[in-house]
């Protein structure tokens, strides 16, 4: 029987809901992570996903929005999580593309691997 999903609430307000707990390594802010992801606005509209870009994406974890830097470090390779990002940990008052200023965001992330 699978354990119930666990949730980490970080001091910044970021919520990490572990949907599948990975069994691999856990990244640090200095790592490059390979992920599948889907980002949605509060109304459920998808604004971005790795599938739109042709498959998994790789990012230096210290060069993305704070919500990702903080939340993905709580994951292990092979894991899936839902990150709830308060606006201050996402794009704040600047907004980006289809994301209005001061918008809370949700990401579903699958951590596929870690590089340097």
From TrEMBL:
One Pfam family in the UniProt entry: FKBP_C
Domain PPIase FKBP-type, by residue range, is 30-115
Q: Where would one find coiled-coil regions in this protein? A: none
Which UniProt key words apply to this protein? Isomerase, Rotamase
What does the record give as the reaction this protein catalyses? [protein]-peptidylproline (omega=180) = [protein]-peptidylproline (omega=0)
Give the EC number(s) under which this enzyme is classified. 5.2.1.8
Presence of the UniProt keyword Isomerase in the record:
yes
Keyword check for Chaperone, yes or no.
no
Looking at its record, which EC class is this enzyme?
isomerase
Q: Which GO terms describe its molecular function?
A: isomerase activity
Regarding protein family, the annotation reads: Belongs to the FKBP-type PPIase family.
Protein name, as recorded: Peptidyl-prolyl cis-trans isomerase
**Organismal lineage:** Bacteria, Pseudomonadati, Pseudomonadota, Betaproteobacteria, Burkholderiales
């Amino acid at each position: 029987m699978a354990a119930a999903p666990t949730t980490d609430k970080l001091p910044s307000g970021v919520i990490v809901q572990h949907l599948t707990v990975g069994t691999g390594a856990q990244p640090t802010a200095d790592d490059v992570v390979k992920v599948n992801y889907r980002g949605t606005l509060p109304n459920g509209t998808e604004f971005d996903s790795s599938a739109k870009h042709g498959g998994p994406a790789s990012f230096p974890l210290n060069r993305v929005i704070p919500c990702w830097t903080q939340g993905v470090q709580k994951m292990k390779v092979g894991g899936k999580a839902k990150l709830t990002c308060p606006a201050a940990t996402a794009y704040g008052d600047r907004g980006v593309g289809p994301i209005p200023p001061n918008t809370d965001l949700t990401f579903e992330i699958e951590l596929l691997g870690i590089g340097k």
